[in-house]
Specification:
alpha+beta, Glutaredoxin, two-stranded parallel ribbon, 4 strands, about 10% strand
Length: about 110
C-alpha cells in the first residue's frame, strides 16, 4: 500500500488532502525504521503494537491495513482498502473540500 499512498501524496500535493497513518509495529523504533525504509513522508502514529491500541480501538480497526476516507468535516465516507474505490472517493470529495478551503481563506482576510 505504501507505493500507492506515496503516489497520492505526490498527485494531491496542492489539494486539501492529507494522509495520516496509524501503525501497529511492535515498537516506536520499528515504526521509525519502517518510515525511513518505505519513504513515508506523512505523519504516522505509533499505536502500541496491535489492533488493541487506543487509536485502533477508538476507530474500530480490527486488522491492518485499514483505510478510512474522512471528509473535510470529519465524517467517515469510506472504509475500504481498494485503491479504485479510494481514488473514486477522493475524487468525489475534493470539490467540497476545495470550496471549504476557499471559504476559510476568504474569511481570514
Amino acid at each position: 500500500m505504501y507505493p500507492y499512498e506515496r503516489s497520492l501524496v505526490k498527485e494531491l500535493a496542492d489539494e486539501p488532502f492529507v494522509i495520516l497513518g496509524v501503525n501497529s509495529d511492535d515498537t516506536a523504533k520499528r515504526l521509525r525504521d519502517t518510515m525511513a525504509k518505505e519513504s513515508i513522508t506523512w505523519p504516522s502514529f505509533f499505536d502500541g503494537g496491535g489492533t488493541d491500541g487506543p487509536i485502533a480501538t477508538s476507530w474500530g480497526v480490527r486488522g491492518w491495513p485499514t483505510v478510512l476516507l474522512i471528509d473535510h468535516e470529519g465524517v467517515i465516507r469510506l472504509r475500504d482498502r481498494d485503491e479504485n474505490l479510494l481514488k473514486a472517493g477522493i475524487k468525489k470529495l475534493l470539490p467540497a473540500a476545495r470550496e471549504a478551503r476557499a471559504a476559510a481563506a476568504g474569511s481570514e482576510r
